[in-house]
Amino acid sequence: MPRPGGQNGAFPRDPTMPTRPDAPPRLRALPLLLALVALQWLLVANPGYFSHDELQWGARADVANWRDLPWVAWTDVGTFQWRPLTFNLWLLVSHASFGWPQAMHLAWVAMGSAIALALGVLLLRLGTTVAVARGAALLFALGPYAAYVHGWVGTLADLLWVGAALGLAHALVSLRARGAAPLVAAAVAFAFTALGLLAKEAALAIPALLGLAWLLRRGRPVGLAAVIGSGVAALVYLALRLDTLMAPAEASTYALSPGSAPRNWATYWLFPLRPAAFEATGTWFASAKHLVIAAGLLLALVAGIAWRAPRRALALVLGGTLALAPALPLAFPANQYGYGFWAWVVACVALAWPALGRAGRGLVVFMALVTTWHGVNVQREMQRVGEKQAVFQPALVQALASHAGELRLLTPERDDWIYRRLSHEVPAWRGAPIGDRVRWVGAGEVVDYRVAEDGALVAP
What we know:
By secondary structure, this protein is mainly α. Helices cover 59% and strands 3% of the residues. It has 17 helices and six strands. It has helices at residues 29-38, 41-44, 52-60, 84-97, 101-125, 130-142, 144-151, 156-177, 182-199, 205-216, 221-245, 261-270, 288-308, 310-324, 339-352, 358-401, 416-423, and strands at residues 407-410, 428-429, 432-433, 438-440, 449-451, 457-458. The strands form two sheets. Strands 4-1-5-6 form a four-stranded mixed β-sheet. It has a two-stranded antiparallel sheet with strand order 2-3. Helix 1 (29-38) crosses helix 5 (101-125), helix 9 packs parallel to helix 11 (221-245) and helix 10 runs antiparallel to helix 11. The radius of gyration is 23 Å and the shape is globular.
């Protein structure tokens, strides 16, 4: 007797065709987009910034005219962080909006919500119901990885490369439906992959994911052509950049540690089910009991999908690994590296939904609630940090202006990481210099100011 997922657990029909070709279902994109933005209001209303990256780029963009911006060279492939599309767009946006943090946050949330909407529409085109597609868009946007990326202005690269990947997926669905020639698919895949790579090296995952999709779909000429086109873009990129990518500064967050890959892989899977953790590195601070429960839930989900639709389960686990592959050898598992991974996971679970029984669907709903709760917690923490930054940076430049030499500061212990990030290699704030004049001291040392709970500087 065949399993519910199809004759052998494979796709029961062509997933690129709508359920009712004569009257394809509609997602009502505008109401969903507005709902996605509204549900991330904590991020939009954030009055400040999160880390040194956006402060550094804001300082660089602080020029009288946009023509005077310090543009990043499109041909300087020897630079470690060669992301010309990301950095030049970031300069433009910072020049226009950096003085109004809520405008910057609205732009990021709007881009992230558009990506979530694109994911939902793609799933609808692949055969899911409107309810499942809408739920997937919400689950993606409200999860912890998306909350982090949508709330931190330093993550434009992640928005761009994942957006390029989804744009390619939509293009290939359309090309196949129209019976386009394989050469056209190859050219389109090359262009979208190149666009993603100009934003971030994480886009190297695109050809790998295309290859997996092609294999699981039992190979179609258009799909193979897309894999080849995307792969050529990745090979050209690696030919130009591999030596540089393999030699990051040892002390940087891009330091290589291949032995960390298994732990990083587990971190990215477990983190969404660890609601108290703000960043992925905090996953392992949970009790052993909590980690075992989270791992058990994940295994139950994969097993439930595998029982009903083996290929969906393979796509979930192997595809999730491929989406993470460019980041797994890094020593530091940062949240933003899980953005594309989260999109893939949500998509695979949504596509497996019709094959799941009542117990499986109940498990998915429970895990969705946990991850959404986690995402709300990340939104709240982002806002908390922004509120402190909005007070701290003006107070800092005011104190520096009236103080000769190094300024010694003491922070509240639990927020020490916040202020160290906000002062790390930040050259200026709204034209007032900062530079390397800030020195953080410990309790019992001589201090010039103490950082208050709200970010203000208070004389000891």
